[in-house]
């Protein structure tokens, strides 16, 4: 099946325009973003037949194009002028991003070190079971073979280990906020 650009535009043009308008909240800016989106679509015209979910692919292109344009604008310090006055958070915070903020990275590292410390305090049987399952990502069958026990025993040890670990994290004042949040 060959997908024609005219048919693609006819079917998804309004959807992409409304998405651009929702993101930019400005008719002229939405038209610019939409134009950039369709330029990218034309660039990948020869690969359109390989795409399973056209609407999802177009949505991703639209979101990434908007995000890129907004970041360029932020770098030029024009974001103060273009941000709607009724919006109390930066627009970029509303656009999903796969990258973590520095504070999220620091918090994740803190949590990892606290949990690692608590895992080290578990009895050897529970510690090994947790490590095999979560760190080395062994299946329950593989853990049963390595530890020479039944799968039911592995499941119960894993259940108990998680409960003991949770109790230890809740009892520790340094980790209480991470566990209960």
From TrEMBL:
Annotated SUPFAM superfamilies: Sigma2 domain of RNA polymerase sigma factors, Sigma3 and sigma4 domains of RNA polymerase sigma factors
Molecular function terms from GO: DNA binding; sigma factor activity
Gene Ontology biological-process annotations: DNA-templated transcription initiation
Residue ranges annotated for the RNA polymerase sigma-70 region domain, each copy included: 8-74
Domain (RNA polymerase sigma factor 70 region 4 type): residue spans on this chain: 116-163
Keywords from the named record: Sigma factor, Transcription, Transcription regulation
Signal peptide residue numbers: none
Cited InterPro entries: RNA_pol_sigma-70-like, RNA_pol_sigma-70_dom, RNA_pol_sigma70_r2, RNA_pol_sigma70_r4_t2, RNA_pol_sigma_r2, RNA_pol_sigma_r3/r4-like, WH-like_DNA-bd_sf
Gene3D superfamilies reported for this sequence: 1.10.1740.10, Winged helix-like DNA-binding domain superfamily/Winged helix DNA-binding domain
Family assignment from sequence similarity: Belongs to the sigma-70 factor family. ECF subfamily.
Name recorded for this polypeptide: RNA polymerase sigma factor sigM
Source species taxonomy: Bacteria, Bacillati, Bacillota, Bacilli, Bacillales
Gene transcribed to yield this protein: sigM_1
